[in-house]
Write a structure and sequence with these properties.
The chain is mainly β. The chain contains 1 helix and 7 strands; from the N terminus they run αβββββββ. Helices cover 5% and strands 59% of the residues. Strand 2 and strand 3 (41-54) form a beta hairpin. The radius of gyration is 17 Å and the shape is elongated. It starts with a helix and ends with a strand.
Length: 111
């Protein structure tokens, strides 16, 4: 075991982290950012209506946790609902989501 390494990264007594959670609203979506660092970002999208998105990272991983709607990429629409998970790959530069839904979204660092 690497006891020395374990001790080096242990905080005693424990200190609660104070994350800098931010929320921003724009047409059709409220975006809450839970974590954003040099490794990844995690957001909550609350879509109510139609929201347009532009790629800010090499890919975007989306998990629908409530509601339903439609995903539009390049003129093609797909129904999405609670329980769906999908990846927006690098070649996709913009997309729209419409409906009433909540998604947890993660991606690597922005370009």
């Amino acid at each position: 075991m690497h006891l020395d390494k374990a001790i080096a990264v242990t905080t005693a007594p424990h200190h609660d982290a104070k994350p800098a959670i931010t929320t921003s609203d724009r047409d059709g979506v409220s975006v809450t950012t839970f974590v954003s660092n040099s490794f990844f970002s995690v957001h909550k999208w609350e879509v109510n209506g139609t929201a347009s998105f532009e790629a800010e990272a090499p890919y975007t991983l989306v998990s629908i946790i409530a509601g339903s709607g439609r995903l539009e990429i390049g003129g093609t629409e797909t129904a999405i609902q609670k329980g769906d998970h999908f990846l927006i790959p690098a070649p996709v530069k913009d997309w729209k989501i419409s409906g009433e839904l909540t998604a947890i979204v993660s991606n690597p660092p922005t370009k």
